[in-house]
Amino acid sequence: MLLVMLFTIIVSDKDIAGLNIKDSLLNLFKFRKSGLFQGKDAYSFEFPGKEIRLITLQQDTVFYDTAEKDNKTDYFIFATRHQSKSGEKTLSIHCPGNFTNPDFGGVKEEFCTLPASLIKTAFINLNDLGKESGYEISLEATHHGPLIRKPVMFIEIGSREEQWKDKKAAEIIAKTIMKTIEQYKNQEYETAIGFGVLHYCSNFNKIELNSKTALSHICPKYNIKFLDKELIKKMIAATHEKVDFALLDWKGLSSEDKRKLIPLLEKINLKFKKTKEIQDETH
């Protein structure tokens, strides 16, 4: 008997980018109406061994804390806007969670379950489909809500209204989501939690694309000061796959960061590698 994987794609009617991506999904793929959700049409699509549901929230996605109660699914994929002060044109992927106080949903010092293999597959596809788009494509460090214990990822268009309304960007995201779901299987990658980058993870992007390592939760260097042994254990526990090691953006970490982080990793017996070591393996 073939086991069916269930995927739920979620957008919000408060989000221009999410609605733009929804329109692209419905225009490019033969979704069928399958009832109502929060008073809006819900849609379904099937690949062999995969069932997909597309729903629209009345609330902002980062505060959707009842996702698991409302939906029977194996994986959540949120398609949303990304907003930044820099206004940089970005297509990005990350998993929610909070190292400190939850300013944008979720719970302090709690992380969603991150599907490292799914995110790696999506990131490779996003880079392939978006390479001529004029957008920067990046992993983001772990941030914001909601808190969900089923595997979840956010895929986003940033960073201003002009980009959120961009039909080309929305089509890239829609195609990435569907290609990723169609291709997805639980692949055997080495899995690492990451430390030391900025919000955009340029040094980890290369590793996600070009190595056999899949990134899980990423703690940016500005959150290193909040880490303790238990918080790192939570990063590990909130990874869908087994975590094999910690990946350190060595040049991005200050001496003070290293003095704090490395003893914590040693206390929990988690080995670490520097980004250069992984990059050398790919040559």
Task: Give a summary of the structure in a few sentences.
This protein is 32% helix and 28% strand. The protein has helices at residues 16-28, 67-70, 116-130, 161-164, 167-183, 202-210, 229-237, 255-267, 275-281; strands at 5-12, 32-37, 40-47, 50-57, 75-83, 90-94, 97-98, 110-111, 136-139, 152-159, 190-195, 213-219, 245-248, 272-274.
List keywords for this structure.
283 residues; alpha/beta; Aminopeptidase; Rossmann fold; 2 domains; eight-stranded mixed sheet; 28% strand
Outline the structure in words.
- With 283 residues, this protein is an alpha/beta fold.
- It folds into 2 domains: 179 residues, AF0625-like (Aminopeptidase, 3-Layer(aba) Sandwich); 92 residues, Rossmann fold (3-Layer(aba) Sandwich).
- The protein has 9 helices and 14 strands.
- The strands form 3 sheets. It has an 8-stranded mixed beta sheet with strand order 2-3-4-1-5-10-6-9. A 4-stranded parallel beta sheet has the order 12-11-13-14. Strands 7-8 form a two-stranded antiparallel sheet.
- Strand 3 and strand 4 form a beta hairpin.
- Helix 3 packs across helix 5.
- The protein starts with a strand and ends with a helix.
- The relative contact order is 0.15.
- The mean pLDDT is 95.
